[in-house]
Write a structure and sequence with these properties.
Structural class: alpha/beta
CATH topology: Rossmann fold
Number of helices: 4
Strand order of the largest sheet: 2-1-3-4-5
Largest sheet: 5 strands, parallel
Radius of gyration: 13 Å
CATH architecture: 3-Layer(aba) Sandwich
CATH class: Alpha Beta
Number of strands: 5
Length: 129
């Protein structure tokens, strides 16, 4: 299965971070949607399913942890794995069960891409229609 079959939602309130991650993933063949906060991400998830969500921890309106918790409340969104990014030290953050990986900012893109592929390989058995 090619990466193009995989849909990724990137959520970050910092436009530069959002654009860099979106361009990186698109350049690697992933289908990418973006949102600038947790509320917008939930609206995007209501419209389309994704295979993976990459979200910043600290955002206005709804932070990444709250977004993860809201996803766990919706049976349709529960299976979607999340990669959380943050400038906050990892040990001080709660880790909801849908958080598959955590990356400190600045994100090492090679490591992030490896993790994206690893998570998708073990969680997605076939492309979604």
């Amino acid at each position: 299965m090619t990466d193009a079959a995989h849909r990724v939602l990137v959520v970050d309130d910092e436009f530069a971070s959002l654009e860099v991650l979106a361009l990186l993933l698109t350049g690697e063949g992933f289908s990418v949607a973006t949102a600038s906060n947790g509320e917008e991400a939930l609206a995007r998830l209501a419209e389309n399913t994704v295979d993976l969500l990459i979200a910043d921890y600290k955002m206005p309106k709804m932070d990444g942890i709250t977004l993860c918790e809201r996803m766990l409340e919706d049976v349709r969104l529960q299976p979607i794995p999340v990669i959380l990014t943050s400038g906050t030290p990892r040990h001080s953050l709660p880790r909801p069960s849908n958080v598959a990986a955590f990356f400190s900012k600045p994100v090492q893109f090679d490591a992030l891409l490896r993790m994206v592929r690893e998570i998708l390989a073990r969680t997605v058995t076939q492309p979604r229609a």
